[in-house]
Amino acid sequence: MSDDLVTGLLPVLGRSLELSFNIFDVMHHGLHEKQISNVFRWLLDPEQTHNLGDRFLRIFIDELNLVSEGSEPLPHGDYLVRQEVNTAVGGAGADIADLVLESEDAVVVIENYFTSDGHGHSYSGYLAFSVRDGKRGVVALLCRDEDVSLQTLGWEDAAVLTYGKLAERLLEHVGGDRAYQRKNPDAYAFIEQFHRKFVRGRGRMGDQDVLNFVVAMCDTGEVRRYQLQPQEVAAERFADDLAVQARERFGEGRDLLQRAKRRLSAYSEGPLRRQLDATRGEGFVRGVDARFAGIYQWTINIEVAGESIDLSGSRLQLKFGPSAWFANEQDSSWARKVDSDQADYSRLFLTRSDVKEIRQSTVSIQDVLDGLDRTDHRLHDEITALLN
């Protein structure tokens, strides 16, 4: 192992190995949507034992109004909080919403899931239920991760709220309230642990820290370790060289890469495919897959139709992390590459097989993790330029 690896990785290995107590981890809570719905019902009900009154309810309504641009703002006031509510009307089959808030003037129907995905529920049914008595109706998606490419069949019109954002707002509200903390130490400890679970534990900054680690592995050439099998053995060897902290970040780096792969694959199959077909003609994209293994597994293949002899049988690829590094730095089959001093492995790379060319994208891995908007045309424009 070179000194360069140690130098490159030390700045991103600063997190303490000492794990702090968190009730969510002890109870394995937060692993199922019903568990999180229970937490939010408790927080939203002003009469519950948190002794917040309607403070969190007001935060929730304020955040809904912020993400519902162009809509009439929801009023504050007394809301009845219900859980597991059948929204089906007119004798239709049951469609159970996780949470419903209802006041004299408004109804909020909430679908809670780890991603911003209606996952089989009816957006139009939820909306019809919310406005059935002539009240102001809103349908909201409550989730851990927002990914707009998953919002289809009407769910693209839903307001999206994340656990992390709401936990952050709540802790900002009570974090400086010493009187509340003194009178309600147990409730405050729960709120602080809720924040740590969904903000400090895996928010944007958490992703960025892990992404820095993956980029450092690319920059030092040690990214080859990700292709070793089994991964547990590779991690142990790496830990022998850089001690226990390095082993922890190694695993996190792989998890982050797999999460980015799932998101990029879903975006490529959905919005990106539709954008390219709209530009180049229906059926231009023949297929999207991510079936490669080893050092190539962080690659999304896009098979395109040959509208001319130049594109016949051509394959486009989106590469990132280890796959991008290997293609650009080690694989001699690519004729045109990005200069090593210009390569930024925090970004995606685009390749075109028939001309053996690699280009660096303006889209970052962090952009993918945050969720690419269906109206984002950067990859479409870059692929079109590469084809031309």
Notes on the protein architecture:
The chain has helices at 3-9, 23-26, 33-44, 55-67, 123-130, 163-175, 178-183, 185-200, 204-220, 231-280, 321-329, 365-370, 378-387; strands at residues 80-86, 96-102, 106-115, 136-145, 159-162, 285-289, 299-304, 315-319, 347-352, 357-364. By secondary structure, it is an alpha+beta fold. The protein folds into two domains: 32-200, no CATH class; 259-387, no CATH class. A five-stranded mixed beta sheet has the order 1-2-3-4-5. Helix 6 crosses helix 8.
Keywords:
388 residues; globular; 13 helices; five-stranded mixed β-sheet; five-stranded antiparallel β-sheet; alpha+beta; 2 domains
Provide the fold topology.
Blueprint: H1 3-9, H2 23-26, H3 33-44, H4 55-67, E1 80-86, E2 96-102, E3 106-115, H5 123-130, E4 136-145, E5 159-162, H6 163-175, H7 178-183, H8 185-200, H9 204-220, H10 231-280, E6 285-289, E7 299-304, E8 315-319, H11 321-329, E9 347-352, E10 357-364, H12 365-370, H13 378-387
Parallel strand pairs: 3-4, 4-5
Antiparallel strand pairs: 1-2, 2-3, 6-7, 7-8, 8-9, 9-10
Helix pairs in contact: 1-9, 4-6, 6-8, 9-10
